[in-house]
């Protein structure tokens, strides 16, 4: 994160020490909670732990969450027209000159947004782009509401997680795995930062944030109505067909047979929520 990297292999103590030293943060839990309840994902993961207890996040899960959080901090700063720097710990010239990846040009859902909104493209380092990525991204941006928060480009979807059709290239997700690639607006970066701390693996936390849009309501089939979109507290969208995917290791399908296939793909993250108790 920032000018620094942590692979999660040094243990929790080393993780906390580096965070305090580099970013002067007294408490890691202000960004990422140390424990979470895997049963919160029971609706979408049949391999989840059966108990309702809280378990510690793995160091690699914490490190992954931090990399996304500091990307959100960078997006919030570089997309803010009132600022010129990224954020305090970053001083390298190549970081200061970040530019928008494009503009969301679709009709706004709310009355406050008028101009096309600059977007930040965030991708994990092992993301594999689809053919004609830039062309397909441009088509999506022409439809993406200019007051959106987040738009997933690379993800996996549980079979029972419905989507609502928005346009030719866009859907509204009710839940997703992975944060392989996504677009973020200034409003979206602020929304995510205001929602901290992350609880659980960051992709699961994001998926549950999507799911909360439909808590007590039903995501219907077919094309979504404008009023339904306006009622979403978290204005999240997704590419109807993903534009990038998770790079697979040759041994991704080997190992613990109790681990769900979608978690085996993310070979650099130790998942803390699996297994029987």
SSE arrangement, N to C: HEEHHEEEHEEEEHHHEEH
Uncertain residue segments = 84-97, 250-255
What share of the residues does DSSP label as strand, in percent? Answer: 15-25%
Q: What characterizes the major β-sheet?
A: 7 strands, mixed
Average pLDDT, rounded to a whole number, is 82
Shape: globular
Strand segment tally: 11
In terms of quaternary structure, what is this?
single chain
Write a brief structural summary.
The protein is an alpha+beta fold and 277 residues long. It has one domain (11-264). It has helices spanning 11-23, 59-78, 93-96, 133-143, 186-194, 202-212, 226-230, 261-264; strands at residues 35-36, 55-56, 102-104, 117-123, 127-129, 150-156, 163-165, 170-173, 177-184, 236-239, 244-246.
């Amino acid at each position: 994160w920032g000018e620094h990297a942590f692979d999660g292999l040094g243990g929790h103590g080393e993780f906390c020490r580096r965070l305090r030293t580099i970013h002067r943060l007294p408490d890691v839990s202000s960004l990422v909670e140390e424990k979470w309840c895997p049963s919160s994902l029971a609706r979408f993961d049949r391999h989840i732990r059966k108990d309702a207890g809280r378990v510690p996040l793995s160091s690699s899960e914490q490190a992954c969450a931090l990399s996304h959080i500091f990307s959100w901090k960078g997006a919030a700063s570089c997309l803010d027209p009132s600022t010129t720097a990224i954020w305090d710990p970053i001083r390298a010239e190549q970081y200061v000159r970040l530019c928008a990846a494009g503009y969301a040009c679709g009709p706004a859902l709310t009355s406050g947004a008028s101009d096309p909104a600059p977007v930040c493209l965030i991708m994990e380092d092992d993301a594999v782009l689809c053919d004609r990525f830039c062309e397909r991204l441009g088509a999506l941006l022409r439809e993406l509401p200019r007051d959106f928060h987040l738009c997933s480009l690379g993800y996996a979807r549980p079979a029972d997680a419905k989507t609502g059709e928005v346009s030719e290239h866009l859907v509204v997700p009710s839940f997703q795995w992975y944060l392989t690639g996504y677009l973020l607006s200034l409003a979206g970066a602020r929304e995510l930062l205001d929602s901290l701390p992350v609880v659980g693996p960051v992709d699961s936390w994001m998926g549950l944030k999507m799911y909360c849009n439909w808590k007590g309501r039903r995501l219907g089939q077919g094309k979504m109505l404008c009023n339904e979109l306006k009622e979403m507290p978290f204005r999240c969208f997704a590419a109807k067909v993903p534009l990038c995917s998770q790079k697979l290791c040759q041994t991704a399908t080997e190992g613990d047979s109790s681990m769900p296939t979608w978690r085996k793909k993310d070979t650099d993250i130790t998942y803390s929520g699996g297994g029987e108790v």
